[in-house]
Amino acid sequence: MKEKRSSFIDHLEELRKRILYSIGAVALCTIAGFFFAKRFLNLIIQRASLGTTYFFAPAEAFVAQIKVALFLAVVICFPFILYQTWAFIGPGLTRSERRISLSYISSGIVLFAVGILFGYYILIPYGLQFLLSFGSDTIQPLMNIGKYLNFFLWCLLGSGLLFQLPLLLFFLMRLGIVDVDTIRKHRPETIVAVLILCAVITPTGDFFTLLLLSVPLLLLFELSILVAKLAKKRRQD
Q1: 23-42, pLDDT tens digit by residue?
Q2: Which residues neighbour 40 within 8 Å (Cβ) at sequence distance 6 or greater?
């Protein structure tokens, strides 16, 4: 019992260390990113062709720059956070599992970047265009910087994180934790789960934005099933 308790405490200490490393890296990058936040904030506003945004509280513009700096820090530190996660769970895996999991770190970084770019170039401009099209001569938008920034950053971050789902699914199938045939049998339930996640993470909740985000995710989901099926067939041969 003492050995198990000691082992559990060691795991908690290791987890605490990895979390502190990640928080420290994000904090340092946030401080550094604050000096570039205003420039990036201008790019965010120009991206939506809003012209001018407004803040309705004295500290709101300052808080907006802090949010931008924090977002930049999370994006920059994402590879480091991903590595810290692997460093915590890696010792508990077998040699083959460690080799497989380590090979997916670079893929996770690439998919996160693709998700961010997808959100920036497709999800946000087309989603905003759709939402603002409901305005009229008597209903004009007065864009608050705080609310617009929350919309923008959640779209980017949510898109980047959601693009990890197909990779996570493929990883679980590759390790044998989830069977590819079982996933194929329960494809409708999985599609519904993906749609629910997209609806929860995206800040707008409208059908058009949900469709923009869910279609590429479902395509990646089908691709991950196909690749996992081919990999399973190759191992059997």
Answers
A1: 999 999 999 989 888 888 88
A2: 68, 72
3-state secondary structure of 58: coil
- The pair of structure tokens assigned to 179 is 């069977």
- Tell the residue number behind the tokens 């001018």, with chain if given: 52
Q: How far apart are CA 138 and CA 158, in angstroms?
A: 33
Residue type at 65? Q
Q: Which of 74-83, 110-119, 216-225 has the lowest mean pLDDT?
A: 216-225
Q: How far apart are CA 208 and CA 125, in angstroms?
A: 12
Instruction: Calculate the dihedral angle through the C-alpha atoms of 30, 33, 38, 41, rounding to the nearest 10 degrees.
Output: -80
Residue 2 has pLDDT above 50, yes or no: no
For 174-187, write each residue's pLDDT tens digit. 767 777 777 777 77
- Residue 191 to residues 74, 119, 165, 206, Cα–Cα distance (Å): 28, 20, 12, 18
